[in-house]
């Protein structure tokens, strides 16, 4: 069954992971009702809606989007986006990663709980996406394509920052406070910053002996309160999410030459037998059977 009326993508052959590099960029028009997720990604994604309508869901919030709107996806945050059943959207997107990405977005005011940018001036943004893709498609030297695409990405972020600032100025944001002197806009936005910290902690520290109690204490929450907020934001309890992260990492490591014991230790299990039991619960197969199946399919 076809899921898109058209779909095209360009890849960066020489990304630099320690900086901020474009991974790929594309354009598509999904069919009516086509959706992606709920799922998490390993990279950042910026979508610009060119036409039509759709819905974007993240951190317990749902946004109805149309032409000119931008939505940003953060790594390891559960999201779902779906084309309208009558007027399916078309959009362009860019995926990127790197140690500077989070800070660059945060400085613009784009955070996991503020990922939608409304714009009535999409022409400039569309042109930047077009030039970014061109830089990936037409360089014979991948390193030059990486350098140029990174430049276009920064210009894209610059334009998004200008749009955010313009909207805030028009709406009087940034100076609006309540009687206690607190930012009224912040008070009316559900803050999931600590949940995002918990998600990132699990994705970075999954190999360590994490406990939900310890994570809650680190964030200043009682375990039950953290579980409630976490499930609202991601659809999973903290324990379920950590288990999923560890099992997904284990799947990747089982494709390597590491022993089962080494894989177990690498994803936070000191006991290989207990790891094998948990992996079977996850995949329905033992780690050894899973590895053999992957090896056979690769041949």
CATH architectural name of the largest domain: Sandwich
Q: What coarse outline follows from CA principal-axis ratios?
A: globular
For this structure, the CATH topology of the largest domain is: Jelly Rolls
**How many domains?**
2
The CA-CA distance between the termini, in Å, is: 27 Å
What structural class should be given to the helix and strand makeup?
alpha+beta
Helix content: 40-55%
CATH class of the largest domain: Mainly Beta
Topology pattern, helix = H, strand = E: EEEEEEEEEHEHHHHHHHHHH
What's the Cα radius of gyration? 21 Å
Look at the structure and give the mean pLDDT: 82
Main pleated-sheet profile: 6 strands, antiparallel
Beta fraction: 15-25%
Spatial strand sequence of the major β-sheet: 1-2-9-4-7-10
Count of helix runs: 11
Output the CATH homologous superfamily of the largest domain. Regulatory protein AraC
Number of strands: 10
Low-confidence stretches: 174-191
How would you portray this structure in words?
The protein has two domains: 4-171, Jelly Rolls (Sandwich), CATH 2.60.120; 193-298, Orthogonal Bundle (Arc Repressor Mutant, subunit A). Helix 2 (122-137) packs antiparallel against helix 3, helix 5 packs parallel to helix 8 (238-253) and helix 9 (260-266) packs across helix 10. A hairpin with a 2-residue loop joins strand 5 and strand 6. The protein has a six-stranded antiparallel β-sheet with strand order 1-2-9-4-7-10, with helices on one face. Mean pLDDT is 82; it is low at 174-191. It has helices spanning 101-108, 122-137, 142-171, 184-187, 193-205, 212-219, 223-234, 238-253, 260-266, 272-283, 287-298; strands at residues 4-11, 21-30, 35-39, 44-51, 54-58, 61-65, 70-73, 79-83, 90-97, 116-117. It contains eleven helices and ten strands. It is α+β, with helices and mostly antiparallel strands and 299 residues long. The two termini are 27 Å apart. It is globular and about 55 Å long.
């Amino acid at each position: 069954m076809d899921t898109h009326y058209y779909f095209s993508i360009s890849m960066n052959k020489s990304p630099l992971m320690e900086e901020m590099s474009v991974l790929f960029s594309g354009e598509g028009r999904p069919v009516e009702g086509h959706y992606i997720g709920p799922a998490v990604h390993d990279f950042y994604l910026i979508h610009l809606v060119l036409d039509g309508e759709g819905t974007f869901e993240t951190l317990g919030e749902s946004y109805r989007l149309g032409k000119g709107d931008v939505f940003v996806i953060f790594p390891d945050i559960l999201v779902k986006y779906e084309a309208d059943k009558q007027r399916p959207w078309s959009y362009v997107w860019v995926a990127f990663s790197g140690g500077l990405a989070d800070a660059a977005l945060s400085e613009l005011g784009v955070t996991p709980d503020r990922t939608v940018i409304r714009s009535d001036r999409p022409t400039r943004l569309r042109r930047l996406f077009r030039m970014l893709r061109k830089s990936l498609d037409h360089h014979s030297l991948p390193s030059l394509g990486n350098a140029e695409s990174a430049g276009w990405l920064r210009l894209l972020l610059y334009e998004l920052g200008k749009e955010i600032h313009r909207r805030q100025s028009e709406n009087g944001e940034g100076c609006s406070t309540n009687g206690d002197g607190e930012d009224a806009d912040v008070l009316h936005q559900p803050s999931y910053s600590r949940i995002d910290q918990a998600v990132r902690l699990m994705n970075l520290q999954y190999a360590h002996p994490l406990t939900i109690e310890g994570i809650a204490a680190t964030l200043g929450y009682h375990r039950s309160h953290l579980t409630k907020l976490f499930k609202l934001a991601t659809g999973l309890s903290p324990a379920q999410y950590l288990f999923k992260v560890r099992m997904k990492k284990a799947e990747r490591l089982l494709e390597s030459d590491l022993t089962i014991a080494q894989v177990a230790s690498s994803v936070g299990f000191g006991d290989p037998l207990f790891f094998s039991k948990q992996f079977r619960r996850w995949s329905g197969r033992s780690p050894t059977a899973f590895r053999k199946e992957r090896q056979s399919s690769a041949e």
